[in-house]
Specification:
Layout lengths: L5 E13 L2 E7 L1 H4 L7 E4 L12 E9 L5 E6 L4 H7 L6 E8 L11 E7 L6 H10 L3 E8 L8 H7 L2 E6 L6 E2 L2 H12 L3 E5 L2 H13 L4 E4 L1 H7 L11 E5 L5 E5 H4 L2 E3 L24 H4 L3
Parallel strand pairs: 7-8, 7-11, 8-9, 9-10, 11-12
Antiparallel strand pairs: 1-2, 1-6, 2-5, 3-4, 3-6, 4-5, 12-15, 13-14
Helix pairs in contact: 5-6
Length: 295
Amino acid sequence: MSDTPVQTSATVLTVRQVQDYHAITLVAPAIAERFRPGQFVAVAIGDAHSGRLVRRCFGVYEVKSDYGGTVELVFADTEPGTAWLAGRRARDQIDVLGPLGRPFRLPRDPVNCLLVGGGPGGAALFALADILHRRGCQVHFVLGGPTSRQVFGSRMAQRIGDSATVTTRDGTMGERAGVREVLPRVIQETGADVVYGCGPTSLLSAVTQVAGEYGLPSQVSVEEFLQQTGACGIGVCMTCVLPVHGEDGVTRMVRACHDGPVLRGDRVRWGDLGTIPFDALGAPRVLSASEGGSK
């Protein structure tokens, strides 16, 4: 198995609506055999007469050997590109590049793992859960969303997880609360050793903060950040850069698609997303009056 991504013409097997989201299954054996949990694919949008310049990046929900090798993606229909994707039919051909990015780092020994997800981004947790179970780990889920229709995978989590906690802001499913509110309790109840997060940036920031309060390592997938920035997926366009501080204490601007999408949560400067902090390596300097000289 090679780690090199491939560009392939994938055949659409099915497209279905799942609550407020869409799930598309593609026959793409070359991508399926290379995939590791946490990686993503970049999908070309449109055909020869309606193509859009930038691909759309999606985490992978599930990979199966059925039909020669399938890859399933879950996404929200929020703009013309995803609307086009939601409108595909069986046997349509879609240009897909992947798998891309850095995957989740897996524990060497069986440990208690807490997987926290929100929205369609949480779909990427299930491929991770599968491989963690095969390594003898306990897998606990916390899934949340504003309403029941925006919580993806609650039934699957209850079926395969050692425990599953669901929260909604309006109380239509599970506990009436936010994910941030239930995390401390769940960490204590499950004896979690490591926390993984997929979903909205605000959720990832909360996961990192709470995990840090309990001295737990966290790994988070910044897939939503990739989607919002309209990234190319291969590190060329430089639109998905975000500030991350290294072991040496120096902040560097890294590409979410190339250096991520999985990052150590405690290394991301969540409050500075969308900016280049003044102390980041290579950040533009603002000259003082004395340095600027007189006109």
